[in-house]
Design a protein that fits this description.
This protein is α+β, with helices and mostly antiparallel strands and about 625 residues long. The chain is built from 21 helices and 24 strands.
Length: about 625
């Protein structure tokens, strides 16, 4: 038999933390901004674990002036510094340089923990250019330094110190993350949420660049968090009373929940396990939703409040609901190291069994509020049935109707294979004309938008479907919307928003993204939605032509030309000014264009920012603009 050439010499054994540096995505989900910030969350969560187990009450987070390094300090017990004889290393060094080393594999030290894998701190160390650990224990301050996961100094006794605690300073490695920076606003939002989840916890955030110091502490816990979420959403409560429930740890399971119905058309639930945000939900959230529906149905039956002429679905019951669920459990089973979804099967029954009777009792004890909620649910059911009828009128029923019921202004492609088909949603007839001439007719379809795009953050689904432009988008996509949505009927696997590279174009793109996020979110989650990157400038030098996305890109291109060069620079006022061939080369041709795929890194923060920017609350929008005025580039 011929040799394959595959021998033991081809087997690579990665030692220490090298696997983390080779495959960081396996441990932090990716090397994008989400993964970059995940390093900070891992260190903060270790501090929170000390607090939730009764060993600390204060955490300080400092974002350094370079925005590329941070220090996290707690007043917990301090990571042990005594030597483990079998390894001939201190416990501190083992924790920071070894995967699956930590004190959270046993409930003796940590009843509840956000990190059970024993990989958090060591992963941060592996992916940091530099890390310094300072430990206050036994009356002294101890220090050890690391670089890219390896100790570069011995553990040394710095001198006497009061109190106990751990301080970690780290600088994410640019070899892994490039030129990324921390976002002060993202950190501020996450820390504030942590403080809501722990009534006694004080978190101090120092932003050295902005020279600010903020303290987050919320005596009301998640009841206060619920009030803030409702205020941010900008929709008034259906009834004045909010439901709050707390059960201390029984059999290793602690639960806290708060909820209130509002006049919003959406359901908003924030769930957490051991203070970790589970943005993808999980078994605990399933139990929470089931408990709410069961409790409301039982109240309706007991109180003889069943609405006539309409059937209530679970979605009707939860429409407009804003809820917060926080559970603590021993050894939760998360799906993935980034812990975004809980998989522990027992959590569903535990949450359901705790919340359902408590909520039913709350409704029975507050019958006036309960009746208002039921009336609101009945209206939701009627609106759903009306929206379904409207949605069915604009959606394509079967694959056979590929050419039927499509908008008249849609220049469709010849291909009937969705995986090879692209839809460009283009701003205006002029740009639409250039795009139609410059496209590849076999695989690229063009849909020009002629009228005003509705702000769907402030509208019901029925109102959305009455908007001609959005109705045309839904018709062209073919996948339906609302209850009639079926992703398998999607006619294009690339949906590309092509707008002018100016403030008006950005506004229209934002309105469309709001529509996709609120009503067609699976298309974003599935990676089908993109933003085109048309050039704002054309730079001609001799026989060479360069295309610049913005002024910064133009300056870079000009700076790379010979010093005595005098290039011709043209700024496009809009896509309509571009010749079809120019549009094809820069924006339509897959071989030369630049596309940005639209992704959702954090549902919680995306939801908050959209509510602030696109909601009816002018004060929230003003606050958002004023806080970020120094960071923003305004195109007036």
């Amino acid at each position: 038999m011929a040799s394959t050439g595959y021998t033991s010499d081809d087997i690579t054994v990665l030692e220490g933390l090298e696997p983390v540096r080779r495959r960081p995505g396996m441990y932090i989900g990716g090397t994008d901004a989400k993964g970059y910030h995940h390093l900070l969350w891992e260190i903060v969560d270790n501090c929170v674990d000390e607090v939730i187990n009764g060993f600390g009450s204060r955490i300080e987070v400092t974002l350094h002036a370079d925005n590329k390094s941070a220090t996290v300090r707690d007043d917990g017990r301090g990571i042990p510094i005594d030597v483990k004889k079998e390894f001939k290393k201190s416990a501190l060094e083992l924790v920071l340089t070894t995967l699956h080393a930590g004190g959270k594999f046993s409930s003796a030290q940590y009843q509840f923990s956000g990190g059970l894998h024993g990989v958090g701190s060591s992963v941060v160390n592996a992916l940091s250019e530099q890390m310094t650990a300072e430990i206050r224990r036994d009356g002294f301050l101890w220090e050890q330094k690391y670089e890219r996961g390896k100790a570069v100094t011995k553990l040394r006794k710095v001198g006497p110190a009061r109190g106990t605690g751990t301080s970690i300073t780290f600088h994410p490695d640019p070899q892994i993350f490039g030129k990324q920076e921390f976002s002060a606003e993202t950190i501020r939002f996450r820390l504030d949420t942590k403080a809501f989840l722990h009534k006694g916890l004080e978190i101090v955030f120092h932003d050295q660049k902005a020279k600010t110091k903020e303290t987050f502490q919320h005596a009301g816990g998640i009841a206060d968090f619920l009030s803030q979420l409702i205020a941010e959403r900008g929709k008034p409560p259906t009834a004045p009373l909010a439901f709050y429930f707390e059960r201390p740890g029984e059999a290793g399971f602690r639960i806290e929940a708060a909820l209130q119905w509002t006049e919003s058309h959406e359901e908003t639930i924030r769930s957490y396990v051991n203070a970790i945000p589970t943005t993808q939900g999980g078994t605990h959230e399933q139990g929470f939703k089931a408990a709410i529906v069961k409790a409301v149905r039982a109240f309706i039956e007991t109180s003889n409040l069943a609405p006539k002429g309409v059937t209530l679905t679970a979605e009707d019951v939860r429409e407009g609901l804003v809820g917060v669920l926080s559970v603590y459990m021993q050894e939760p089973q998360f799906q993935g190291q980034t812990k975004e979804r809980l998989g522990s099967p027992e959590a569903q029954a535990l949450v359901d069994g705790a919340v359902r009777p408590a909520l039913e009792r709350f409704l029975l004890e507050n019958k006036t509020a309960g009746a208002q909620i039921v009336e609101r649910i009945a209206l939701a059911a009627k609106a759903r049935e009306a929206s379904r009828a409207a949605a069915q009128a604009v959606s394509r029923k079967t694959a056979v109707s590929h050419r039927l019921n499509l908008p008249g202004k849609l220049a469709d492609c010849a291909s009937t294979d969705p995986s090879k088909s692209e839809l460009f949603i283009v701003e205006g007839d002029s740009a639409g004309g250039s795009a139609k001439q410059g496209r590849e007719r076999k695989t690229q379809a063009i849909l020009p938008l002629r009228g005003k795009v509705l702000n769907t953050e402030q509208a019901s689904l029925q109102k959305v479907l009455e908007n001609k432009e959005l109705q045309d988008v839904v018709s062209a996509l073919g996948c339906g919307v609302g209850a009639d949505f079926k992703i398998e009927r999607l006619r294009y696997h690339k949906i590309i928003l092509l707008m002018d590279a100016d403030s008006d174009g950005h506004h229209i793109a934002t309105l469309l993204l709001t529509f996709f996020y609120r009503h067609l979110q699976p298309l974003i989650a599935g990676g089908f939605v993109y933003l085109a990157q048309p050039p704002l400038f054309r730079v001609d030098h001799g026989k060479e032509t360069f295309w610049a996305l913005d002024e910064e890109d133009r300056a870079r291109i000009v700076g790379e030309l010979p010093k005595n060069a005098h290039p011709d620079i043209m700024r496009f006022k809009g896509l309509g000014e571009m010749q079809p061939e120019e549009l094809r080369r820069t924006t339509l041709d897959p071989a030369t264009r630049r596309l940005l795929r639209v992704t959702i890194d954090d549902l919680v923060e995306t939801d908050r920012v959209l509510a602030e920017l696109m909601g009816k609350d002018v004060e929230a929008r003003f606050k958002f603009i004023m806080e970020r005025a120094a960071q923003a580039d305004l195109d007036l």
